[in-house]
Design a protein that fits this description.
The structure holds two protein chains of two kinds.
Chain A: H1 9-34, H2 39-67, H3 79-110, E1 114-115, E2 121-122, H4 130-165, H5 169-174
Antiparallel strand pairs in A: 1-2
Chain B: H1 8-32, H2 43-54, E1 66-76, E2 92-102, E3 117-124, E4 130-136, H3 146-155, H4 167-176, H5 181-189, E5 201-202, E6 207-210, E7 216-225, H6 234-237, H7 242-253, E8 256-264, E9 284-297, E10 317-319, H8 323-347
Antiparallel strand pairs in B: 1-2, 1-9, 2-3, 3-4, 5-7, 6-7, 6-10, 7-8, 8-9
Helix pairs in contact in B: 2-8
Pfam families (chain B): Catalase
Active site (chain B): 64
Protein name (chain B): Catalase-related peroxidase
């Protein structure tokens, strides 16, 4: 595979779009379960279609990720940081893929209609089952928390590369390296 | 990488930005979850006070804990389809899973001791949508805000010393919230019926029906029994479970029926105060017949695992500005998550 300095433009667009969507989702999620204000139902009605959008986008993104050339990490990076970078990326992909599916499955297990608005309802992916719901509902919160922590670490690492190391890692995604 | 191109001051500024950006997100996240504002009224607090009032009964609902499952159908006559495009109102039949219950968090409370009764219904629409509604056998709600409801629960909590609610606290609540007076007057003169079959159940909260053109109509609904009212008698007062036995006996004889009445607000009517009824001359539409045909105990029954969240609505029905609706939805979800977890632990399935 040829050496590239940047991620594929489509991947870069998807990355920033999903970054906004996922951060919004995490905030919507934590707010909608705690608030009793009129925001509650509004947030619930955004949460489901936005989650489905993220699921579709992550599938497209993974496909692009496997079939396009990706920039190599700089040789200056110590081995442990490389390992962390790879691990956190695959953890992020895994959670982005799993979290909407867990949400869909848990709503199915509870017998809730998975309405995306205007009378459009997704089919259930699990039969109604209390024992499954009892596992999936707390799992959905747990993955959300793990995703939030990983995204924050990813953000801190990205800023470190952009502001201090200046080794081209941040630019490979932002695509703003000055020539 | 021992040499950095930055002055110490630049380095500190840059490191500060790296730390502060994620920190800002973390603080916002904690604030969103309510962890930074313990005084904020959350769904956790609402469920907490109900649990305190009814005692802890793992695996049961935090309110309306004692109930029975029923199944049946709604036979729509098509009359409400001009007001709402929801398919449940087109002429035809929709299967229904319902639940009769009494208020309170104690699943073994004597039926006669609880003046407020409820009927919850889940209409299973053909396209996978659902209409869930939790109705109560009282004409209007005691209060109209969540804060008032919470304070009312707190004021009615049993005093640890006497085991009974402190009348001084309750009096103080009434003085601060005179809005509750009509409800207290109603409760005082109300003689409960001898059967769930003869109770009228009301949505209390207002909703919006959305018609085919997208126009919204402010409505409330009630199910009005075909069975004649009989006041509660001495025999019932000696039987802790008379409501459950009665409904099972009646359903063994044949189905029971209610009319679904839609009350349409007039211009200027307010839908955000569940403690206020609209004037009696408002237009009502008989949307069809609710027919319940079979009852089963709630444990293992089809209604046990249904969260009768009043905001699970099909296209064509929407929430109103009533603040209680969002609070009910959020608190029911908490209660549902807690009891399903407890039930799974009890059956030892996992």
């Amino acid at each position: 595979m040829k050496q590239v300095a940047y991620f594929h433009p489509a991947l870069r667009v998807l990355h920033w779009l999903m970054a906004a969507a996922i951060i919004a989702m995490l905030f919507i999620g934590v707010l909608m379960v705690s608030t009793i204000s009129s925001l509650h139902s509004l947030l619930v009605s955004i949460h489901k279609p936005l989650g489905m959008m993220i699921l579709v986008l992550v599938v497209v993104r993974l496909w692009l990720r496997f079939y396009t050339a990706t920039p190599a990490l700089p040789a200056s990076l110590p081995a442990w940081q490389r390992a962390m970078a790879h691990l956190s990326h695959w953890a992020l992909y895994a959670m982005m893929l799993a979290q909407p599916l867990i949400g869909w499955a848990m709503l199915s297990a509870a017998g809730y209609p998975v309405s995306l608005g205007s009378g459009f309802v997704l089919p259930p992916i699990l039969p109604v089952n209390n024992d499954w719901y009892a596992i999936l509902r707390p799992l959905h919160s747990l993955v959300a928390l793990a995703l939030f922590i990983t995204v924050m670490l990813h953000l801190a690492a990205a800023l470190l590369h952009a502001l201090i190391l200046r080794d081209g890692v941040f630019e490979s995604m932002s695509g703003t390296r000055k020539r | 990488m021992t040499q950095t191109p930055f002055t110490p001051r630049q380095l500190i500024t840059r490191l500060a930005v790296i730390a502060l950006v994620p920190l800002l997100f973390i603080v916002l996240f904690l604030w969103g979850g309510g962890w930074l504002s313990p005084q904020r009224l959350t769904s956790d607090k609402l469920v907490g006070v109900l649990q305190q009032a009814g005692g802890e009964h793992p695996g049961f609902r935090r309110n309306h804990a004692k109930g029975i499952c029923v199944i049946g159908r709604f036979i729509s006559n098509g009359n409400a389809s001009a007001l709402s495009r929801a398919s449940v109102f087109a002429a035809g039949e929709t299967p229904v899973i319902g639940r009769f219950a009494i208020a309170g968090g104690n699943p073994s409370a004597p039926d006669y001791a609880v003046p407020v009764r409820s009927l919850a219904l889940a209409f299973q629409l053909a396209n996978g949508e659902q209409w869930r509604t939790g109705m109560n056998a009282m004409p209007f709600f005691p209060v109209s805000t969540v804060e008032q409801f919470y304070e009312l629960q707190v004021a009615s909590l049993p005093d640890p010393a006497t085991g009974k609610p402190n009348p001084e606290k309750f009096k103080a609540f009434v003085q601060k919230n005179p809005e509750i007076m009509p409800f207290l007057a109603w409760a005082k003169q109300n003689v409960p019926s001898s059967s769930w079959a003869s109770d009228r159940f009301n949505s209390l909260n207002a909703f919006r029906f959305i018609d085919k053109s997208g126009a919204a109509h402010l409505v409330r609904w009630s199910v009005v029994p075909h069975t004649a009212y009989q006041p509660i008698g001495a025999a019932q007062k000696n039987d802790n479970d008379f409501l459950q036995k009665d409904i099972q006996q009646r359903l063994a004889q044949g189905p029971l029926q209610w009319d679904l009445l839609i009350t349409v607000a007039a211009k200027g009517d307010d839908g955000s105060h569940a403690s206020q009824v609209w004037p009696a001359d408002r237009q009502t539409i008989n949307a069809g017949t609710l027919e319940l045909s079979q009852a089963t105990a709630q444990q293992q029954g089809p209604c046990n695992d249904i969260n009768y969240d009043p905001l699970i609505l099909p296209d064509g029905i929407a929430a109103s500005d009533d603040p209680l609706l969002n609070a009910r939805s959020a608190a029911y979800a908490k209660s549902y998550n807690a009891r399903t977890r407890e039930q799974a632990a009890q059956t030892g399935a996992h």
